[in-house]
Amino acid sequence: MLIALIIVLGIILIGLLVLRFYPVLGGKASQTSRQLISKSTNRSNNKFVNQIPTSMNMNFRSTVKLLVDFVKGNPKGKPSSPIKAVPLLPVGIPNGGLPSVTWFGHSAILLRLDGKTIFLDPMLGKRPSPFPVFGGKRFSESLPIEIEQLPSIDAVIFSHDHYDHLDYGSIKKLMHKVKRFIVPLGVAAHLERWGVDPAIITEHDWWDEFDFEGLSLASAPARHFSGRSVGDRNSTLWCSWVIMGKQAKVFFSGDSGYGPHFEQIGSKYGPFDLTLMECGQYDEKWAAIHMLPEETVQAHQDVKGKLMIPIHWGAFTLALHDWTDPAERSTKAAKANNVAIATPRIGQTVTIGAAEFPTTAWWR
């Protein structure tokens, strides 16, 4: 009994030390951040909430079945061989020229607009996990370009603080290249703990509108949740983003279940030349926080988008569907609804507003 008690106490102590000192888990909000958070109208009982009821609860039986299914896995849940990314050379990232986006897999997008370089949700690590030995490995053998080769980045924009979007290792490598970090309320705490200068971070609530070096930006609602550590669920905000320049208007959905906010965003800011819409890692059990591909196409129409690129797929296995299902189902739904959809390879650049765009079913 004494040995068992010592082992239990040892495990508890290790857990407490990890929670206290392991930086990957993120940080606590500063006084300045807490003041901003306290003014938000999108909170209840000291937690951020969605616009409409969004339940993520499952009964005991469903939870056990889900855990068993994840342990079994899906043989088609990842590619049979690693994906080869299209190489992106530094010379292919100009500061001027036509507006464009380059997909890095999952939700990581490099946007060039009005001569500015903006990185959206740059999760460039190998695994979306706080511990490198756990979590599914990235599908692609390498990134389109290594972080060290990237040029100066005018702004990094995050949608929320989940590990498949906000990555400690990526930030440590990127931070010295970035002029500004633009994040939802509360997310600054993580960046500050990791060494980012608070002076170059701005935090935003839903419907905040502001200018950044000639671009007009707005933080808009999403239907999701947040959290990186024990007890911090919904202590930070999640959002979508509207990015408007002289050359084009872009909508970035972040992670979101389907909801009325898409129509609100379309009425307020649409039409958009390009939408970057979440369409992977879904399941009927959690459809409230991750859209099904058919809903993705509807959301694109709700925000009044012209061309859609499906994101949040092609990099990691975070759900039980076949890894190709997001692309197959979204392209099928797009065709049925006469929606223009681009399906670039990882690393392939798409010019916004061009008459032609990639439509090859490269995943087959």
From TrEMBL:
This is Membrane protein. One of its GO terms (molecular function) is N-acylphosphatidylethanolamine-specific phospholipase D activity. It comes from Cohnella abietis. GO terms for cellular component: cytoplasm. It comes from the Bacteria. InterPro entries: Metallo-B-lactamas, NAPE-PLD, RibonucZ/Hydroxyglut_hydro. It catalyses: 3',5'-cyclic UMP + H2O = UMP + H(+); 3',5'-cyclic CMP + H2O = CMP + H(+). Gene3D superfamilies: Ribonuclease Z/Hydroxyacylglutathione hydrolase-like. Residues 118-313 form the Metallo-beta-lactamase domain. Pfam families: Lactamase_B_2. Counteracts the endogenous Pycsar antiviral defense system. Phosphodiesterase that enables metal-dependent hydrolysis of host cyclic nucleotide Pycsar defense signals such as cCMP and cUMP.
